[in-house]
Structures are given as C-alpha cells and as structure tokens.
C-alpha cells in the first residue's frame, strides 16, 4: 500500500489527523540527533505543534523508494527557531501503516 501521496498531502494541507492516522498505534519514532525514541502520543503532539506553526515549513518531500514494507523520503525543513535541516526519513510499514520511523537530519545554513 502506498502511503507517500497521502502523507505528502497531509503535510501540504497541515492536516495532523490525516498525517498521524497513517501511523500504527504502537508506532515508534527514533530521532538519531538526540538518540531518543518517541511513542505515537508524543510524536502526535510534536506533529500537531509543527503543523500549527506558520513558521514551520516541512518542505517538499521526495519519495526515494516505497513498497509494502518501507517508505524512504527526503525533504528540506525550516523550523520556527530559524534552523533548517535536510531530513532523510525511513518508515517501516506493517499492515498498511507506518510502524517505525527513523530520521537523519543534517543542519543547513539558510
């Protein structure tokens, strides 16, 4: 099942419900910058804050690869604190939902 188009539309429309509905209830989000993991409720809150801010631009996403098991995408994101990052996101999928997300982010100058 392809998820990228639905996920990308949710980001463009700032539709946090549509975005987080793509994740399984037991989804895990791994942030390699900090070495931390978030469960879906924490990740849901983060996404809602990001989408609510007019100063957050989650960038145009590119689908690198997607099949029934994995989605890999890339974007350039701008955040309210003035930082900009190139983000590579790997999403493991199970039963048509995202089960595990791992990101790598590279700080960029503006």
Automatic annotation (TrEMBL):
Residues 2-53 form the SnoaL-like domain. Pfam families: SnoaL_3 (PF13474). This is DUF4440 domain-containing protein.
């Amino acid at each position: 099942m392809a998820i990228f188009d639905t996920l990308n539309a949710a980001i463009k429309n700032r539709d946090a419900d549509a975005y987080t509905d793509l994740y399984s209830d037991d989804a895990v989000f791994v942030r390699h910058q900090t070495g931390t993991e978030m469960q879906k409720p924490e990740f849901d809150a983060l996404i809602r804050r990001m989408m609510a801010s007019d100063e957050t631009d989650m960038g145009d996403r590119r689908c690198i690869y997607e099949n029934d098991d994995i989605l890999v995408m890339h974007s350039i994101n701008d955040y309210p604190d003035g930082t900009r990052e190139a983000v590579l996101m790997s999403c493991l999928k199970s039963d048509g939902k995202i089960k595990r997300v791992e990101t790598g982010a590279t700080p960029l100058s503006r």
